[in-house]
Amino acid sequence: MSNAEWVRRGFEISLDKERLDREAITKMLKATYWAHDVPETALWDSIMNSRAYGLFSPEGEQAGIGRMVTDLSRFAWMSDVYVLPVHRGQGLGEWLIHTMLNDPAMAGVRRIMLSTHDAQDLYKRFGFEAVADDNEEARQMMQLQRAAEEEE
């Protein structure tokens, strides 16, 4: 797995897991509705066993994170997309999602799923659609389906 990096206005997104600040990430994710009750060790293991996109400020501090649980072939689960409040309002969350979806390593992935209670409108801008609309829990599930590329 490469340690690709993307830079924009001094901020950086990196796949280098050595740069991830465990304390900062677990603190920010423990403050979310989706990970507040996940043990810290399990939370960190989930990051280490995923394609983790660390977002770093111009000063090199952890500013956010996103991750894909994926086989890099057919399926991915987008999770833990988070930008620290101090860095919000600059389009960094959108940039992080865009980078994750357009990562060349993810090009072959046909279905990307996620679950969100409150960011459906954000993900719809990237082409995600609700999986079903028959109940509240189903509306939280979203997916992006891409056209298959022709085999070589």
Main traits of this protein?
globular; Aminopeptidase; 8-stranded mixed β-sheet; alpha+beta; 8 strands; 152 residues; 5 helices
Which fold name corresponds to the CATH topology? Aminopeptidase
* Contiguous uncertain segments of 5+ residues: none
Number of helices: 5
| Architecture (CATH level 2) name | 3-Layer(aba) Sandwich
Tell me roughly what share of residues is in helical segments. 25-40%
- State the shape: globular
How many discrete domains?
1
Percentage beta strand: 25-35%
Structural class: alpha+beta
CATH superfamily: Gcn5-related N-acetyltransferase (GNAT)
Q: Could you write a compact summary of the structure shown?
A:
With 152 residues, the chain is α+β, with helices and mostly antiparallel strands. 26% of the residues lie in helices and 29% in strands. An eight-stranded mixed sheet has the order 1-2-3-4-5-6-8-7, sandwiched between helices.
Folded structure, characterized:
This protein has one domain (5-145): Aminopeptidase (3-Layer(aba) Sandwich), CATH 3.40.630.30. Helices cover 26% and strands 29% of the residues. The mean pLDDT is 92. The protein has 152 residues and is of the alpha+beta class. The chain starts with a strand and ends in a 7-residue tail after the last strand.
